[in-house]
Amino acid sequence: MTTPDDLLDSSLTAQYESYPYPERSAKDESKRLLIGSPSHLKEIDYWVFGARRPTSMPLRALVAGCGTGDGAIMLATHLARAQRPGEVICLDRSKAALAIAQARADVRLLSNIRFIEGSLLDLPALDLGLFDYIDCCGVLHHLPDPDASLAALEAMLAPGGGMGLMVYAPYGRTGVYMVQDALGSLAPVTDAPETRLDMARRIMRTLPATAWLRQNGNFGDHLSGGDAGLYDLLLNPRDRSYTITAFMALLNRAGLEPTCLMEPARYNPALFLPDPKLRAKLAELPPLEQAAIAEELTGNMATHVAYVVRKGAAPTRPDPLDYDSIPIMREIPGVELAKQMRADNTLPFAFGTLLVPIALPPQTRGLLPLIDGEHTVGDLARALETRGVSAEKFRQVWRESFDTLESLNRVLLRSPA
């Protein structure tokens, strides 16, 4: 007898074979590398391993539900460019999606990536072994039992390993579930994928101006990503979302804890609530409660991204005030980030569709161009000393600069060779 879950799984299979997501073309690999979180190598080194794991150690990574390959291609490319040992295993049950990911890897001549057709629902039977790092991005919220699947992934972590996860969040997806419900009647899962997509296109062409989805500017790839993006947004037969509180509960049940919510600063409501009385009240609340308030008040978090490790296994990161520590820019060169600072020494930072001015010490403007992944903190101190900044003042400036830029995921610390 066909169960509702069987029907939904059949519909999901048909969706990703007909419209592999996200919509990608191998020919674009010669033009650009798509960058994001999780699974950026510098982020893994810092947020998962605490900038303690030597880069000479091979990294065995699993991308559980790789889709058309964005995270896997990024991580494998980062490893190859840095000439670091390791292998990225890409698992997905969609033959069509894997073919696209494979073609993208071929264009980049990546020899450190391998593709396996299989389902996350059958992880134990696949016998893939243990992994230092597991990426599960945009997958758990489509599974029949996210708790069981996350527990199965946790069992595949090597000692000291961690994961990069992404799940949908409800408030930033306001309007999506309303349209999904309407299409549940107009384009039932029993219809062929092309028939369902036709109905979704018709809805979007005539969607009333009053629809909440019309007011929501939090979607990029889904609404500009062709048929695959539209299908995944409005027609995915199994789509749940998690508030930050529910997401933390999911992690807790799997025996996991976050080392970082991405970006950490976006979960700090004090950044966009300047009222002193409000800030004083916020300071009395535990971090999770503050994060929930940030999600509830901003209303634009469409996803939650986290790096996680087993409970009690969070690494102690190096002291950024240690003169031997080496700061690195995650992606944007320091000289370019310094140019983005305004005359009032604030850095305009976009948390999705919310732009917040982040205050920095005036000296940060001169420090940023010195951060090149080679200069130590001691080098930075000596450079500022020639500009009349005492050692004590430097420590104060660097502490504030690093803490702020780390919370924006812009400046991290380098791992040892």
UniProtKB/TrEMBL annotation:
Residue ranges constituting the Methyltransferase type domain according to the UniProt record: 63-161
Transmembrane segments: none
CDD domains: AdoMet_MTases
A molecular function GO annotation: methyltransferase activity
Top-level division of the source organism's lineage: Bacteria
Entry-linked InterPro entries: Methyltransf_12 (IPR013217), SAM-dependent_MTases_sf (IPR029063)
Protein name: Methyltransferase type 12 domain-containing protein
Organism: Acetobacter peroxydans
